[in-house]
Amino acid sequence: MALRVCNLARQRNQLVINSITNPLSFRFHQFPSRPLQLSRSHPCFQTEFRYPTGPIRAVHEATVDAITKKKESEGNLPENWKIKMLYDGDCPLCMREVNMLRERNKSYGTIKFVDISSDEYSPEDNQGLDYKTVMGRIHAILSDGTVVTDVEAFRKLYEQVGLGWVYAITKYEPIGTIVDAIYGVWAKYRLQITGRPPLQEILEARKKKDEACGDSSSCKM
């Protein structure tokens, strides 16, 4: 009697598997809510079957992650920007402020961030401002082409992400002049403060790199 029950169970098990694997009967809307699992613990069930949800989930997550990163990257370059921030991506202290503004800008999309240390930086696309000039102090470019520097640049940038109150007091004299003077000292010594070589050495290193690369795009990879 027990043997007959086992035989019937095996036949039923095989019919279930065949109905799932048969292309003619395969339908997405027929999937059970949970993966089909047939235990090996009982002698009547010698076959184990599971849907390959693991690889599908991995591919799905990888695809979503790639799309998310692309959207984040595109969010750093808004099409309808109102001000462009030229920043030194090799300056660790500067990047703290840049990252804060970039995070705030996700809700506004008004700032376009341009890294002057990038091999892709083009003075022609940024009102003719070359690397050496922008390394001297903070520069920002308004959407109408107006170039602003020093504390005024910070004030304009902060205003675009809802933090105008931080530098609002610098609109008034003599406070504006005093703050500009303090910033000028920081700008003059920021390379030493952040443990980087003098500007002249940086410029020479970039020149040698450009000469070695020539027109090759391999240095920009």
UniProtKB/TrEMBL annotation:
InterPro entries: DCC1-like, DCC1_Trx, Thioredoxin-like_sf. One of its GO terms (molecular function) is protein-disulfide reductase activity. It comes from the Eukaryota. This is Thiol-disulfide oxidoreductase DCC. It comes from Erythroxylum novogranatense.
